[in-house]
Design goal:
Layout (H helix, E strand, L loop, with lengths): L2 H15 L25 E6 L5 H17 L2 E6 L4 H13 L4 E5 L7 H9 L4 E4 L10 E5 L1 H15 L3 E6 L6 H19 L3 E7 L6 H14 L6 E4 L2 H13 L15 H9 L4 E4 L2 H16 L8 E4 L4 E7 L2 E4 L4 H5 L6 H4 L12
Parallel strand pairs: 1-2, 1-3, 3-4, 4-5, 5-11, 6-7, 6-8
Antiparallel strand pairs: 9-12, 10-11
Helix pairs in contact: 2-10, 3-4, 5-6, 7-8
This protein binds beta-D-glucopyranose.
GO molecular function, one term: monosaccharide binding
Keywords: Signal
Organism: Anaeromicrobium sediminis
């Protein structure tokens, strides 16, 4: 920031905190050049928890491409699972004068601070994929996350309506992890109540770490003398961890394991038989919808929503997309047809004469 801008901004912050005048502060720090048509360029900030799982890299790449297509500027930063870093990065974007701040929070509760800081500068906040709890979030764009859990539960109860079930969940700090679990448990409940299903082990996995999931699976196997009939894993990363633990006991491919995200590794495991299903959430749809709605918010245009989701403080206006079950049978009609992963990659370990026709 040059000295002149710094002085203007300091004067504005002081004026705002004294309540002297409105309309100052936010726009002063925008780093963008005015486009040729003379209108101010729209700047969207995106504060991400992580880029660890493959899907978040897709989110980032698609958002960047879409922003370019739409002629808006997007600033993206990922915090590597560190709450303080995420707050600092978000505050930095706020001070750069973004028009809208999108946030995929590491910690649903802690991120409420970010909403407060953004609102103090008149910047609306879009909760991206993961809901920020207990805050005046302006818009939430995600998938129907309880449905993700429903789909996992329905799939395995159809396959195996009886037996010993293990549930390996995601990060307790991520609101989605609770929604996925609720969705799965709603389906299991009648089976548990009538004694057909025994929930022999359930644990959440800190920061969605596959190594944590692997430890949970090892513990579940030990505690139940390897008598486990189904493993519901909240996502593909944790499924990978659980499958490693099953493999140590020569049980990989024998015990159905679920997942979510349609990661390439999971799609490969599905066609090879180590994982039964994943829940596919077409990330291009999420990223494009979120960006388009963020642009509308920036232009103060009407934003269409299709739902509301309670976050502990308010019913947040929401736009929720539909998740899709993917297994061996519909891999071609979903992942391959959409170009989400290339055919050659998904089927790379399957002998050519056993691959489905393209
Ligand atoms: C997302 C999942 C992802 C997980 C771990 C969740 O909030 O919805 O798609 O696998 O976080 O990053």
């Amino acid at each position: 920031m040059n000295m002149k801008k710094r002085i203007i901004s300091l004067v504005c912050i002081a004026a705002l905190s004294l309540g002297l005048f409105a309309g100052c502060g936010k726009k002063q720090e925008a780093t963008t050049e005015a486009p040729a048509d003379g209108k101010k360029e729209i700047v969207i900030g995106f504060s991400m928890d992580t880029l660890k799982e493959e899907r978040w890299q897709k989110d980032r790449d698609i958002l960047m491409a879409r922003a370019q297509e739409k002629g808006v500027k997007i600033l993206i930063q990922a915090a590597n699972g560190d709450d303080n870093k995420q707050i600092a990065q978000a505050e930095n974007m706020i001070s750069q004068g973004v028009d809208v701040l999108m946030v995929a929070p590491h910690n649903a509760e802690v991120a409420a601070t970010i909403v407060e800081s953004a609102h103090a500068e008149g910047i609306p906040v879009l909760s991206y994929d993961r809901l920020i709890k207990n805050a005046d979030v302006d818009l939430y764009v995600s998938f129907d996350n309880e449905k993700v859990g429903n789909l996992q539960g329905e799939y395995v109860t159809k396959m195996n309506p009886k037996g010993n079930y293990v549930y390996i969940g995601g990060a307790p700090t991520d609101n989605n992890a609770h929604l996925f679990k609720k969705g799965a448990m709603d389906v299991l409940k009648p089976f548990i109540d009538n004694g057909d299903i025994n929930l022999v082990y359930e644990q959440m996995s800190k920061d969605w770490q596959p190594s944590e999931a692997q430890k949970h699976m090892e513990n579940a196997l030990t505690a139940n003398k390897n008598k486990v009939d189904v493993v519901i894993c909240a996502n593909d990363g944790t499924a990978g961890g659980a499958i490693s633990a099953l493999a140590e006991q020569q049980l990989s491919g024998k015990v159905p394991v679920t997942g979510q995200d349609a990661e390439l590794a999971a799609c490969q495991r599905i066609v090879e038989g180590q994982q039964v299903m994943t829940v596919y959430k077409p990330i291009p749809k999420l990223a494009e919808t979120a960006l388009d709605l963020a642009i509308k918010m920036a232009k103060k245009e009407e934003v269409k929503t299709n739902s509301t989701v309670a976050n502990g403080k308010i019913d947040v206006l929401s736009y929720l997309l539909e998740p899709v079950v993917v297994d061996k049978d519909n891999m071609m009609d979903t992942i391959i047809k959409d170009g989400y992963h290339p055919f050659e990659e998904v089927y790379k370990n399957i002998p050519e004469d056993e691959r489905p026709a393209k």
